[in-house]
């Protein structure tokens, strides 16, 4: 088992035991978070004045792979109003690119080479989805898979809360 998987499992167990698995306990604002594109070039996750859905995934995460087509479906429905970014927690950019292509996602996907983005956004379990308001404040961190209907409901809430 890789260090990343072990780390994710240990952090998730700690959060569940501590009763903190429902999300952040304080307001967090998204600043620029360093990631890489699938060619290994530096890239950034940044809020650009629209609601943002950040989905952390990995090729080895069955729930991640299962939910990604639903994310693509909802992304196509709301692409003119809400931004989506997929963040691969895979050991290599090649694996991240492969699963993005195999699941058919067309929204932007990047690679979290060293786990910094996951740490900064409290993505302690895969899959994790972070919902960010248009002003850059993190609304919610959802640990676990989401169906298309659940994702739509979260986005409706995201767009109406401030």
Helix and strand topology:
Blueprint: H1 3-18, E1 28-29, E2 33-36, E3 42-45, E4 52-57, H2 62-78, E5 83-88, H3 93-103, E6 108-111, H4 116-120, E7 128-132, E8 137-143, H5 148-160
Parallel strand pairs: 4-5, 5-6
Antiparallel strand pairs: 1-8, 2-3, 4-7, 7-8
Describe this structure in words.
With 162 residues, the chain is an alpha/beta fold. It has a single domain, classed as Glutaredoxin, CATH 3.40.30. 38% of the residues lie in helices and 23% in strands. The chain contains five helices and eight strands. It has helices spanning 3-18, 62-78, 93-103, 116-120, 148-160; strands at 28-29, 33-36, 42-45, 52-57, 83-88, 108-111, 128-132, 137-143. A six-stranded mixed sheet has the order 1-8-7-4-5-6. The chain is globular and about 35 Å long. The model is unreliable at 5-26 (pLDDT under 50).
Concise structural overview:
The chain has 162 residues and is α/β, with parallel strands linked by helices. It has one domain (3-160): Glutaredoxin (3-Layer(aba) Sandwich), CATH 3.40.30.10.
- Please give the order of strands in the largest beta sheet: 1-8-7-4-5-6
**Distance linking N and C termini:** 41 Å
List unreliable stretches of 5+ residues.
5-26
The H-level CATH homologous superfamily, spelled out, is Glutaredoxin
Strand fraction:
15-25%
What is the CATH C-level name?
A: Alpha Beta
Helix content: 25-40%
CATH 2nd-level architecture: 3-Layer(aba) Sandwich
Envelope shape = globular
Instruction: Write the H/E string, N to C.
Output: HEEEEHEHEHEEH
